[in-house]
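Fold this sequence, please.
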Amino acid sequence: MTPRRRILPIFVPHAGCPNDCVFCNQKRISGSLLPASAETVRVAVSAIAPGSGYELAFYGGSFTAMPEAEQEELLAATVPARRSGAVATLRVSTRPDAVTEEKLARLRRYGVETVELGAQSMCDEVLRRSGRGHTSADTVKAAKLVKDAGFTLILQMMTGLPGSDDTRDIASARAIAALLPDGVRVYPTVILRSTPLYDLWRAGEYREHTVEDAVRVCARILSIFEDAEIPVIRMGLNPSDELSGGAAAGGAYHPALGELVRARLWRDRAEALLSGIEPGADAVLAVSPNRVSVMTGQHRCNLLYLQERFSLRSVRVCASDVPDGAIVRI
């Protein structure tokens, strides 16, 4: 992937979405109550200086499923900022079943470089029960169109959706990795108020995908993407005052979810390494200097877990000249 630019987000909540997914309330997630317009874009870019080189990103809806006139209006409003260099490139998010060669050609004319597809799952039963309205085959087809057209491809997936489990989520991650995206976002399911999922949960028809559930399965998913050298650019919903203030009624919302997942991945690796160690022993784990914190875990949780798991006298981590990503017992 190219080096990350500063992002100027423009939220188009639910725009272009033909149906309501059971988990979705974009107004809660984005904090935006009104649809974006050309004026929204002009006001946003007026706050940044020429030559700043931002990436302007249209988030929250299905951009290419919007009426053509609305797409043209929003894209055309970015042209002056593109000419001044305030905005260097554009990004859009959309549905897999709303991607065609013609629609991608329109995006290209306006300088869009990155297309994000909300795959969410590669299991058709999970997609059906979540109200997505598209299939896994749509995702495969759309991903190929996006890559063949020369765009940067980002795929989004979710864990803990209705009808899913660890096995299906891990299979989805493998199927998404096989599409060779330039990056992925992983969003464990959060139960938002004013959604069908909230009603299903309250009625006992949906089992909550807890933070612990998400950390467990996402550690395995993260390993899949890391092994495939696919960057995970986001893990969990972006923290906001509204989500932390009660909009997230349940599910896998945590402001530092990505940190928890990465720590669990390293704990799992260390647990495999220590298999067979004698109870009462002292364990010293060597990692590269930039991995000491993630191996230790928040409040030393990884070390405390390993000490109890194997009945050890002590467990400690030290920085050493080992390959980045490796753990060595010394």
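The mean pLDDT is 94. The chain is about 40% helix and 20% strand.
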